[in-house]
């Protein structure tokens, strides 16, 4: 613990900082630039764990554990649930749609970063008291002593905030059914009225060979019909185009059939 | 006794209210109500007068405080009356002559179906004028002043179905507004410099006020007086005001309205005494108007307009006298009173003549009427002798004193002013003799009067409006009209002698206006003799022109001056060219400046703001991420600012 | 090594997170970037705590975590209901507040 009070850190900590710090930055960048939300979430989780390690290194043992348990364990899992719920959308594209937004963002980010660095460099931060004394009775006990004395009102308020948030989330997502669900008959009538797609959507798959849901059904001219695949797969671009394969398969089948027939012919001779 | 003062104003005001609000059910008795209330005002005035005579000269001033009108700290406007010798003179003149005109109007307006309304307006006129002369501060005086303007508007335009009458009323009102502006500015100046506008404090404060300030106030008061008293350059409304019924003309010219300007100047004497430049301006205005009115009066064939020119000229005498300072104030008022008598008599006589001649006003179609209207002839004749200053009659005393005072002004000014006044006396004698001869003497031109051809421009329009070219049957007017004329004729004859002999009038007014005896460069007897001499010359000239030779029924073309005088010495043309055209040019250029410069700036600002906001609007694109960029940029700026402050 | 480096790292992570908020359109990823920014702040607070030698910085970081948890709950609920009604998780699609 004594090393925490020093003006410089130990070489071990320095080594840990540079290695893990680099990974944390890479993780943060990946969070921003990964195309799929799931990948972003995973990168963020990695960054957070590294931050937890840094907390521990700085003497914040309680926070380090809480970071792992609450953030990476609970919050990031919540994110993943929502990603699953929402699925893949066109919003995942990294293509910019607002004119000049990317440049402005870059400019602001750069300016902000440089100014922040200038500010930190400007501040006289060369004195380090270290946490040796503060953590003398144990980090958790020290925090507890503060939370339940000096910060007790803030603590109570955060409790109220959490409950409010829970209720709020429920109110936002819960939907009371105010109208009767449509019957099958009504839906059919509606389809007729709209006149777009009268019969049920065609089924995916080609003949009896490819019946997986990610394989589009073929139209009579051999091209794939997107209608046969569900929307999520369509948007993810996860349709397997099997038209050529299928035609080749057909040819092979015919050839094989002819061979057998020929052999049988020969046999009859 | 003091409590009676308010009744002087209230009585005619009550009459106006009752008559104007009472409606048709008062038609039968309306004229009696109006006349009785006007007479009541005169009776109250007479009682107060008797009371006043019983007191010593210095204790005659009475005041009555009715209520505080605008009581604000540092600003006291009260409704309070002040009755001193000057006000008393005016009260008796206004209510006395006014009552006589009321009586006359009963006969004159007998066939007019709006007679009740006419009497209501007359009462309103009297009330406003009495308020004007009784007020103890300039603000209340201003109320009366505006009331007079309103009443004159209503009465001049009484026959509003005639476009000419409606126009004349509007003209009188507008021209008066110019003068009113002067009075209101003068009042504001008084308040700014003296902090009050009650007569007493203001006139006392003049002693320690600089001459420049007094001159400014004096000139503004002079502008006001010019408007109300029809002095050059605001004289143009008076001639057109003849469109009103004749009793109205008599009222305006004799008792009310035009005398207000003289009253204002005499009342504000202390201000003018301290401002010689303003006094000089007053005398110049008076002298110019004196000649102006006289020349116009020589050329007019319309009997009322000739008399109107005469009024202008006589008021010019009064303004001239008032401008002379303490040596002239008393004579200005004295001439005002005597003029009130004989001018009222002359106008009522003219109305009587018109009454008998089917409302014909062109004197060229009169002639030889003395046989048919003896009473009118005698009373008119006495008024005539009075106005030309025939020795012994009232005009002689008052006008002679003014001429004397003008000479007494001293120096070159005195000679010029005195000369002008003398010349005016000659011209007065000339044009009044002309009126007299053309109306009552000579051949009876109204018989076989030729139908005026519409192409003839010199024919007065009034003759055409009535459109009666049948031969008239001159006859004497009813007694309700002749009795007032007789009373006024008495006044015309004796008032001057009563006032003048023994300096009675001077002693009466001296405590209010002050008086200084002037010393003319020539003896008073010389002045009197020369006045009589020029009068005789004027009469002789007129007799040579109109008495010995027949008067042409159609006016001859005449000299340039005559033609100009027929057009009121081009006053309307002048106003049109200078004021109307000038105003049009001014407004047109102002409109141009407004459209190009002001609107340009405003519209340009609006357009540039519109364009700017059109561009700024695009920032509001609805994308949360764009807004986030702004926030982020703002945060960067905040950090920059913090760093900068730390660095500094 | 000077512990100030933790602060530089925090600043870098914060800036990356902020840029991500500006660049990404998927509401979920935007939200993750916000979390990244919060974590960067927490790192800075913990480093401050160590510099000053008391635990107040850690307490504030702790509160930040609690508030972040509440925020995530509500935020994700909003995203879910947004997706339900608009069938899209793009932040650009909810751009009705304009002229």
UniProtKB/TrEMBL annotation, chain A:
Instruction: Supply the enzyme class, top level.
Output: translocase
Q: Where is the composition biased (Basic and acidic residues)?
A: 178-196
Chain intervals for the UniProt region annotation (Disordered): 178-200
The cellular location(s) given in this protein's UniProt record come to: Cell membrane
The organism's place on the tree of life at top rank: Bacteria
How does the entry describe its membrane topology?
Multi-pass membrane protein
Keyword Coiled coil attached: yes
What Gene Ontology molecular function terms does this protein carry?
NADH dehydrogenase (ubiquinone) activity; quinone binding
Q: In the UniProt record, does the keyword Repeat occur?
A: no
Listed InterPro entries:
NADH_UbQ/plastoQ_OxRdtase_su6, Nuo/plastoQ_OxRdtase_6_NuoJ
Span-the-membrane segments of this chain are 15-34, 41-63, 69-91, 103-120, 151-172
* Record's keyword terms, sorted: Cell membrane, Coiled coil, Membrane, NAD, Quinone, Transmembrane, Transmembrane helix
According to its UniProt record, the EC number is 7.1.1.-
Coiled coil segments of this chain: 240-267
One Pfam family cited in the UniProt record for this chain: Oxidored_q3
Q: Name one GO cellular component term.
A: plasma membrane
Catalyzed reactions: a quinone + NADH + 5 H(+)(in) = a quinol + NAD(+) + 4 H(+)(out)
Q: What task does this protein carry out?
A: NDH-1 shuttles electrons from NADH, via FMN and iron-sulfur (Fe-S) centers, to quinones in the respiratory chain. Couples the redox reaction to proton translocation (for every two electrons transferred, four hydrogen ions are translocated across the cytoplasmic membrane), and thus conserves the redox energy in a proton gradient.
NCBIfam families on file? PRK06638.1-5
Which family does this protein fall into? Belongs to the complex I subunit 6 family.
| Name of the protein described by the UniProt record | NADH-quinone oxidoreductase subunit J
The source organism is Streptomyces flaveus
Automatic annotation (TrEMBL), chain B:
Name where it mostly resides.
Answer: membrane
User: Which GO cellular component term is one of those annotated?
Assistant: membrane
Q: Which chain regions cross the lipid bilayer?
A: 31-54, 89-106, 118-135, 181-202, 214-234, 246-266, 278-299, 372-394, 414-432, 483-502, 522-544, 627-645
- Topological category with respect to the lipid bilayer: Multi-pass membrane protein
Q: Where is this region: Disordered?
A: 449-478
Does the keyword Membrane feature in the UniProt annotation?
yes
Query: Which protein is depicted?
Result: NADH-quinone oxidoreductase subunit L
Which species expresses this protein natively? Streptomyces flaveus
UniProt lists the gene as nuoL
Automatic annotation (TrEMBL), chain C:
A single Gene Ontology MF term assigned here is: NADH dehydrogenase (quinone) (non-electrogenic) activity
Q: Which reaction does it catalyse?
A: a quinone + NADH + 5 H(+)(in) = a quinol + NAD(+) + 4 H(+)(out)
Q: What's the protein name?
A: NADH-quinone oxidoreductase subunit K
Q: Name one GO biological process term.
A: ATP synthesis coupled electron transport
User: Record's Pfam families?
Assistant: Oxidored_q2 (PF00420)
Main role? NDH-1 shuttles electrons from NADH, via FMN and iron-sulfur (Fe-S) centers, to quinones in the respiratory chain. The immediate electron acceptor for the enzyme in this species is believed to be a menaquinone. Couples the redox reaction to proton translocation (for every two electrons transferred, four hydrogen ions are translocated across the cytoplasmic membrane), and thus conserves the redox energy in a proton gradient.
Enumerate the subcellular locations listed in this protein's record, separating them with semicolons: Cell membrane; Membrane
Q: Which GO terms describe its cellular component?
A: NADH dehydrogenase complex; plasma membrane
Q: How does it sit in the membrane?
A: Multi-pass membrane protein
């Amino acid at each position: 613990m004594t090393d925490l009070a020093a003006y410089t850190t130990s070489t071990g900590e320095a080594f840990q900082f540079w290695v893990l710090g680099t990974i944390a930055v890479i993780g943060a960048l990946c969070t921003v630039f990964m195309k799929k939300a799931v990948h972003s979430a995973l990168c963020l989780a990695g960054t957070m764990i590294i931050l937890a390690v840094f907390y521990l290194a700085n003497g914040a043992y309680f926070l380090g554990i809480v970071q792992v348990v609450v953030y990476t364990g609970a919050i990031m899992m919540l994110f993943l649930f929502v990603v699953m719920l929402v699925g893949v959308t066109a919003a995942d594209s990294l293509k910019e749609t607002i004119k000049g937004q990317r440049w402005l963002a870059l400019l602001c980010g750069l300016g902000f970063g440089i100014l922040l660095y200038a500010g930190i460099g400007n501040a006289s931060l060369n004195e380090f008291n270290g946490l040796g004394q503060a953590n003398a009775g144990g980090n958790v006990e020290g925090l507890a002593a503060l939370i339940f004395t000096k910060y007790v009102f803030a603590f109570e308020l955060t409790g109220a905030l959490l409950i409010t948030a829970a209720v709020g989330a429920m109110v936002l997502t819960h939907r009371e059914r105010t109208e009767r669900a449509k019957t099958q008959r009504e839906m059919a009538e509606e389809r007729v009225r709209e006149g777009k797609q009268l019969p049920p959507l065609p089924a995916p798959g080609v003949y009896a060979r490819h019946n997986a849901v990610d394989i589009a059904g073929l139209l009579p001219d051999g091209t794939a019909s997107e209608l046969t695949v569900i929307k999520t797969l369509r948007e993810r671009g996860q349709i397997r185009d099997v038209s050529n394969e299928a035609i080749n398969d057909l040819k092979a089948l015919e050839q094989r059939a002819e061979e057998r027939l020929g052999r049988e012919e020969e046999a009859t001779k | 006794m003091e409590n009676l003062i308010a009744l002087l104003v209230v009585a005619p005001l009550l009459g106006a209210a009752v008559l104007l609000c009472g409606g048709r059910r008062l038609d039968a008795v309306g004229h009696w109500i109006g006349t009785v209330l006007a007479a009541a005002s005169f009776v109250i005035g007479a009682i107060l007068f008797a009371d006043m005579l019983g007191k010593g000269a210095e204790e005659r001033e009475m005041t009555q405080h009715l209520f505080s009108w605008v009581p604000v700290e540092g600003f006291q406007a009260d409704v309070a009356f002040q009755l001193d010798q000057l006000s008393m003179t005016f009260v008796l003149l206004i209510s006395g002559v006014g009552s006589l005109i009321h009586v006359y109007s009963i006969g004159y307006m007998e066939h007019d179906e709006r007679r009740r309304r006419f009497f209501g307006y007359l009462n309103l006129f009297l009330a406003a004028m009495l308020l004007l002369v009784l007020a103890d501060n300039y603000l209340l005086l201003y109320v009366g002043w505006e009331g007079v303007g309103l009443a004159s508007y209503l009465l001049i335009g009484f026959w509003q179905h005639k476009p000419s009458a409606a126009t004349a009323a509007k003209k009188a009102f507008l021209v008066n507004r110019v003068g009113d502006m002067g009075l209101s500015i003068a009042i504001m100046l008084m308040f700014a410099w003296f902090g009050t506008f009650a007569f007493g404090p203001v006139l006392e404060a003049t002693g320690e006020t600089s001459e420049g300030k007094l001159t400014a106030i004096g000139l503004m008061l002079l502008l006001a007086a010019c408007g109300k008293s029809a002095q050059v350059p605001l004289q143009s409304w008076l001639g057109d005001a003849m469109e009103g019924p004749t009793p109205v003309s008599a009222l305006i010219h004799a008792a009310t309205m035009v005398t207000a300007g003289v009253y204002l100047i005499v009342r504000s004497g202390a201000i003018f005494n301290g401002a010689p430049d303003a006094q000089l301006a007053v005398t110049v205005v008076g002298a110019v108007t004196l000649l102006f009115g006289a020349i116009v009066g020589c050329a007019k064939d319309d009997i009322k307009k000739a008399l109107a020119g005469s009024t202008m000229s006589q008021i010019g005498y009064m303004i001239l006298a008032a401008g002379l300072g303490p040596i002239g104030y008393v004579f200005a008022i004295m001439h005002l009173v005597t003029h009130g008598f004989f001018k009222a008599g002359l106008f009522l006589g003219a109305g009587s003549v018109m009454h008998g001649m089917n409302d014909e006003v062109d004197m060229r179609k009169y002639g030889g009427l003395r046989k048919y209207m003896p009473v009118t002839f005698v009373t008119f004749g006495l008024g005539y002798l009075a106005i030309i200053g025939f020795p012994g009659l009232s005009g002689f005393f008052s006008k002679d004193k003014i001429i004397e005072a003008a000479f007494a002004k001293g120096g070159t000014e005195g000679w010029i002013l005195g000369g002008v006044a003398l010349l005016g006396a000659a011209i007065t004698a000339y044009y009044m003799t002309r009126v007299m001869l053309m109306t009552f003497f000579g051949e009876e031109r109204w018989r076989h009067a030729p139908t005026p051809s519409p192409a003839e421009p010199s024919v007065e329009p009034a003759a055409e409006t009535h459109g009666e070219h049948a031969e008239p049957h001159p006859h004497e007017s009813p007694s309700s009209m002749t009795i007032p004329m007789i009373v006024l004729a008495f006044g015309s004859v004796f008032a001057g002698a009563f006032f003048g002999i023994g300096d009675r009038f001077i002693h009466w007014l001296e405590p209010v206006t002050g008086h200084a005896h002037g010393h003319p460069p020539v003896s008073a007897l010389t002045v009197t003799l020369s006045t009589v001499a020029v009068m005789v010359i004027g009469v002789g000239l007129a007799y040579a022109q109109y008495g010995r030779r027949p008067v042409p029924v159609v006016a001859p073309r005449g000299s340039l001056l005559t033609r100009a005088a027929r057009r009121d010495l081009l006053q309307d043309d002048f106003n049109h060219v200078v004021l109307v055209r000038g105003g049009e040019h001014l407004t047109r250029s102002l409109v141009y400046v407004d459209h190009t410069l002001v609107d340009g700036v405003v519209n340009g600002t609006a357009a540039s703001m519109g364009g700017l906001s059109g561009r700024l609007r695009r920032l509001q694109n609805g994308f949360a991420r764009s807004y986030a960029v702004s926030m982020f940029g703002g945060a960067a700026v905040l950090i920059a600012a913090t760093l900068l402050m730390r660095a500094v | 090594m000077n512990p100030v480096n933790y602060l530089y790292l925090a600043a870098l992570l914060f800036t990356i997170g902020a840029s991500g908020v500006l660049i990404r359109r998927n509401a979920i990823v935007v939200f993750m970037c916000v979390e990244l920014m919060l974590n960067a702040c927490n790192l800075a607070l913990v480093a401050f705590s160590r510099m000053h030698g008391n635990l107040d910085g850690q307490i504030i970081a702790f509160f930040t975590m609690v508030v972040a948890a509440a925020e995530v709950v509500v935020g994700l609920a909003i995203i879910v209901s947004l997706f339900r009604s608009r069938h899209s998780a793009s932040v650009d699609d909810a751009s009705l507040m304009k002229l």
